[in-house]
Amino acid sequence: MFGIGRQCNRTLSLASRIASGSRLSHTLPAINQTGLSAASQNELSELLGQPEVAGQIVNGRSFLPAYYHPRTHNVPVALIHFRSYHISLLNLFTHFASHAASALAIPISKTIPLPTQRSLWTVPRSPFVHKTSQENFERRTHKRVIKAWDADDEVVERWIKYLEAHPLAGVGFRVDRLVLDMQTKKTRSAEKVKELGEKIVERELAAAAASAQKSAETIVKSS
Predict the structure, then answer these.
(1) Residue 176 lies in a domain
(2) Per the domain annotation, does 90 fall within a domain?
(3) What pLDDT does 24 receive?
C-alpha cells in the first residue's frame, strides 16, 4: 500500500512538473552525444520538433511539447476523449498520447479542454431527529479531447492499442472512430448521385422518344 502511495506521489509530481513547463537539463544524454550540448532551449525545441526526428527515440523529448504533423487532406479519422478527477494526471496522459501520435506521424490537434462536469451530493450526517444536519460533497470531472486526421486505419489502431497497453491510473479515455461514418456518407452520396443520374437518363430518353414520335407523325401527315 505504501509503495503504491509513493508511486502515485511521484506520478503527480512528474505531472505537475510537465504541466508547469519545467525542463530538466540532465535528461538529454542523447543530445549531448550529437554535440548540441551548448544549444539553447529554443534551438533544442526546434530540433526535436522537426519531422525527420519526430519518430526517433531521444531522451528528454518527453519534457518538450510534441511535434504536430501538418494535415494533408483534412479528413478526420478519430476522436479520443479523456476524463479524470485529477487535472495533473489528465495533462500528463494527454501529453503522452500526443507524443505517441507524433511518433506515428499522425496529424492531431492540440489538447482541447472541454467543460468540467460538476456533480454535487447532499447526504444527512445522522438519522432520526438529527437528519436536518446535512453534508455536501462535490466531484469535478475534467475532460480533454484530441482529434486525429489523415491517418490509415492500421496506424490509428496501433496508436489506440499503444495507449491501452500503457494506461495511467486515474485517467480514462474513449475512442470515437470516424472512418465508418465517412464511408457510410460516401456510400450514401454515391447512391444519391447514381439515382439522380438514372433519373436524368430516363428523362432524356423520354424526351428523345417524344421528339422522335412527333417527327414521325409530322412525316406521316406531310406524306
Answers:
(1) yes
(2) yes
(3) 37
Is residue 149 one of the residues assigned to a domain?
yes
- Report yes or no on 56 lying in a domain: no
SS3 for 113? strand
The residue range of the domain holding 19 is 2-23+64-182
pLDDT at 222: 66
Task: Sort residue 150 into left (φ over 0), alpha (ψ -120 to 50) or beta.
Answer: left
CATH of the domain at 151: 3.30.70.600
pLDDT < 70 positions in the chain: 1-61, 179-190, 220-223
Beta carbons of 30 and 79 less than 8 angstroms apart = no
| DSSP state, residue 127 | S
Structurally, the chain folds into a number of domains equal to 1
pLDDT the model gives residue 17: 52
Residue 176 bridge partners (DSSP): 79
Contact 134, 125 (CB under 8 A): yes
Helix axis angle for 87-103 and 2-19, nearest 10°, is 70
| pLDDT 10s digits, 19-48 | 454 443 333 334 443 444 444 555 655 665
Residues 6+ apart with CB under 8 A from 195: none
Which pTM does this prediction carry?
A: 0.60
